[in-house]
Design brief:
Elements lengths: L4 E2 H8 L3 H9 L7 E2 L6 E3 L3 H13 L4 H9 L7 H34 L7 E5 L3 E9 L5 H15 L10 E5 L9 E8 L11 E4 L3 E10 L5 H14 L9 E6 L11 E7 L2
Antiparallel strand pairs: 1-3, 2-3, 4-9, 5-7, 5-8, 6-7, 6-10, 9-11, 10-11
Amino acid sequence: MKRLLKIGEFSKLCRVTVRTLRHYEEKGLLKPTEVDEWTGYRQYTLDQSQRLYRIIHLKGMGLSLDEIADIFERGDDKPDPEMIRQKAEQCRAEIVRLQRQLEQLESLEQLSKTNRTMHETTIKRIPSRIVASYRRVIKNYDELGPLCVNVIGPEMMRIGCTCPEPQYCFTMEHDAEHRDENIDLEYCEAVGEMHPDTEILRFYETAEIPKALCCYHRGSYNSFSETMTRMLSHIEEQGMQLSGNPRFCYIDGPWNKEDVADYLTEIQIPIR
């Protein structure tokens, strides 16, 4: 006959709180072997620890208690391949989200130490330039670097593009509203002369911007909104008006800086 353990004993041996055991019972995941009808005392057997540890293991993989209950109801002890794939994809998305959050925190930490939150704003004339343009919908800004290295750069080299000094490259977002994902992004790089369009690049001359409010942003690309907010407040306070899409001009970035806090971007907002 199997030895019966009071809920407190079972809790202590398995290193799980009584409250958790009662919660698992309510969910139908782990019911006591016996419940005294008069006292309500719950008793478990040692072999129930295997099911308990299976619950803990599945929960640690990110499965909800309801999902675990569904698995047990099917007579299985592990999720099916499709659920595993979905959970893995959720983990990857969470890693990306946390990495962006970490970058913002590290950037803010660095800025607080150096007091370099935002440089002074200036008003500039942005001359017209011949540019090589690449436009597509990207999942997020993390895709931009690999696109420059693996797609745009090689194509510019293939057709013999030259980039006059000072080099000038920028991005513009063409969505009607802000997007964190699936961004309609155009990357432009100033070149020395016009070339025929290719399947990858389009060449055109940008219009001159007579006046643009400009400001250097130091730190993660994911924290552009902080600098943009201050610039827009300045535009409002000075009675200026917007007259075009902002440009994000990349000066220092992952190609020459190891620390995200050292990335340097000039934000240019056309005004009138």
